[in-house]
Amino acid sequence: MSVKSVYHQVIYRQTSPKLNNTSHGFKYIQTHRILEFDRVFEQHYQYLKKGLRHLSDAYECLDASRPWLCFWILHSLELLEEPIPPAVASDVCQFLARCQSPTGGFAGGPGQHAHLAPTYAAVNALCIIGTEEAYNVIDRQKLLDFLWSVKQPDGSFMMHVGGEVDVRSAYCAASVASLTYILTPKLFENTTNWILSCQNWEGGLSGVPGLEAHGGYSFCGTAALVILGKEHMLDLKSLLRWVVSRQMRFEGGFQGRCNKLVDGCYSFWQAGLLPLLHRALFKEGESELSQQRWLFEQQALQEYILLCCQSPTGGLLDKPGKSRDFYHTCYCLSGLSIAQHFGNMELHHETILGKEENRLAPTHPVYNICPEKVARALRHFHRLSVTETKNETFYSF
Ligand SMILES: [Zn+2]
């Protein structure tokens, strides 16, 4: 099946006669309201700014995910193009330094064990801050030691020493290793084949081989393969078919798995796959690709996020009736950014629904931080040398 016909199937579903009466009315109300509503810009900013200094009791359960809170908030602020005051940025650097384990990698909080998920979040947060102080927090040699300590012979990675294995860990490891320029072929030996074995009959990827396809794991596996330069080894057409079928015809947002409800955070985990697939299909010589649009309904996703996921008091959420939180704020905004911006540094086309003030900054679809921050981090860490204890050649980007 060609890329174009997969895309047309999606468009057809969006406007299928069966749903036309309902969806037309719905779309009219949505479009009409968007002009008045827009994003609750100032409230989002106040909510995020407060979260960097004070969290309510409700966040106690995230005591082992504190670098994540830094990343979710800092990335949301950069998407809203709100500068981070230097004093706050410095405080975040000092806090993340306390989360760094003496044996390498970052933990969920000071004094905890290193774990790949907060390591990814901490490195991303520090790259968003992008100052010398931020870069200097990262002990790259020890980070490399930590990555080796969780690497498995089959190519997979444990989330922490003695912990579980799933495709998130391969992405977290590839992301931090590439951003800090410590990625080596040896460290990722067999990883490509292990990730490829997570793509199942549905077309998406599961957490480990043999389970159900899932948006978060599909993003992590595909983004890791992009970093390793092996994404062409996936069955790209079946992955494309699976992911575009996760955008729901009525709501416009994405579900995470087949037969699940739409959830705002999949605006990034699922829609974020489309730029990766677009690039991969382009490299494979696919001639029917648009030079202005991704292969999903970008406006419908923007409608869902703007209308259904914004808390009027600031912050974004899963769906109406749910509470706002920093995770959904980050990933709803990240998905909104993907839906607004097509292209890369050279080729760029914007589709902004509603007022021009709705425009967010672009995000890098592999790392999910702003593209210039990725470029700056790569430049910075490229200049540094690492003690080559493993005697390996480093990848060049
Ligand atoms: Zn969610």
From TrEMBL:
Give the reactions, separated by semicolons, that this protein catalyses.
Answer: L-cysteinyl-[protein] + (2E,6E)-farnesyl diphosphate = S-(2E,6E)-farnesyl-L-cysteinyl-[protein] + diphosphate
GO molecular function ontology, one term from the record: zinc ion binding
Fetch the InterPro entries from UniProt. Answer: FTB, PGGT1B-like, Prenyltrans, Terpenoid_cyclase/PrenylTrfase
Query: GO CC annotations?
Result: protein farnesyltransferase complex
Q: What residue stretches are annotated with the Prenyltransferase alpha-alpha toroid domain?
A: 42-369
User: Which cofactors, if any, are listed as required?
Assistant: Zn(2+)
EC numbers: 2.5.1.58
Q: Which SUPFAM superfamilies match?
A: Terpenoid cyclases/Protein prenyltransferases
Q: How is the cofactor bound?
A: Binds 1 zinc ion per subunit.
Instruction: Tell me which Gene Ontology terms the entry assigns under biological process.
Output: lipid metabolic process; prenylation
Q: Which UniProt keywords apply?
A: Lipid metabolism, Metal-binding, Phosphoprotein, Prenyltransferase, Repeat, Transferase, Zinc
Tell me, what's a Pfam family for it?
Prenyltrans
Please give the function described in this protein's UniProt entry: Catalyzes the transfer of a farnesyl moiety from farnesyl diphosphate to a cysteine at the fourth position from the C-terminus of several proteins. The beta subunit is responsible for peptide-binding. Essential subunit of the farnesyltransferase complex. Catalyzes the transfer of a farnesyl moiety from farnesyl diphosphate to a cysteine at the fourth position from the C-terminus of several proteins having the C-terminal sequence Cys-aliphatic-aliphatic-X.
Quaternary structure and interacting proteins, as annotated: Heterodimer of an alpha and a beta subunit. Heterodimer of FNTA and FNTB.
Q: Which family does it belong to?
A: Belongs to the protein prenyltransferase subunit beta family.
The protein's name in its UniProt record: Protein farnesyltransferase subunit beta
**UniProt source species:** Takifugu rubripes
